[in-house]
Amino acid sequence: MLQKYKQRAVKIIFDGYIFVVMIITQFPIKLPFKIDITKVQYNLVPFYFLIKRIEALREASRAGYNIKEYLLPTFEIIFETFGYNIILFLPFGFLLPIIRKDCSLKKVTYYSFSFSLCIEVLQLISMIVTNNSGRCFDIDDIIANTIGGIMGFYFCIISKRLLMLIFKGVDL
Predict the structure, then answer these.
(1) Which residues of 19-44 are buried (b: 16+ CB within 10 A; e: fewer)?
(2) Which of 68, 44, 45 lies closest to 57, judged by CA?
(3) In this structure, which of 1, 28, 123, 131 has its CB flanked by the most CB atoms within 10 Å?
């Protein structure tokens, strides 16, 4: 009986998490609705931004600039590009195996990728319909979100094992 309530509580937390992710990634939606595909922004080349940033650092170094002052801003931008998306999907990968007992790494990877792709497609549709270029369809976001889901899965597995060691013989 208690296990049923725990499972329901985790499901409610997961649903709340999905709701928050949708709010973070989809809003605000700016009006008026006017279809214009010329303002759609997208990146279909994996790690394009990262590669361009590294190339810019190399060029600055060749030109004689001290690149040390550019390194911290570069790392900050890289963290903003990848880190936030990884963090955003950590709970997804962590909670999914708790909700679905048959959830493997392969399934978490698939669900993380699929959910991330849905988010990016919704952002693309929103850009087209609302003529708003505030968001970008970005393959790097899909990659980072999927990595976040995978990391969350491993955190869940590690947490379960640690809890089993700590509470050996106690019914959780």
Answers:
(1) eebeeebeeeeeeeeeeeeeebeeee
(2) 68
(3) 123
Which helix (H) or strand (E) element contains residue 42?
strand 42-43
pLDDT over 70 at 169, yes or no? no
Residue 78 inside a domain? The answer is no
The answer to the question of residue 52 being in a domain is no
Report residue 2's pLDDT band, with 50, 70 and 90 as the boundaries.
Answer: low
Q: How confident is the model at residue 88 (pLDDT cuts 50, 70, 90)?
A: very high
The H or E element containing residue 43 is strand 42-43
Q: What is the number of domains present in the chain?
A: 1
Farthest CA pair distance, the chain: 69
- CA 146 to mean position of chain CA atoms: 6
Residue 144 falls within a domain, yes or no?
A: yes
Q: Of all helices (H) and strands (E), which one includes residue 138?
A: strand 137-138
Classified as helix, coil or strand, 161 is helix
Q: Which of 142, 129, 28 is nearest to 88 (CA)?
A: 142
pTM: 0.79
Quick: pLDDT tens for 117-137.
999 998 888 887 777 666 788
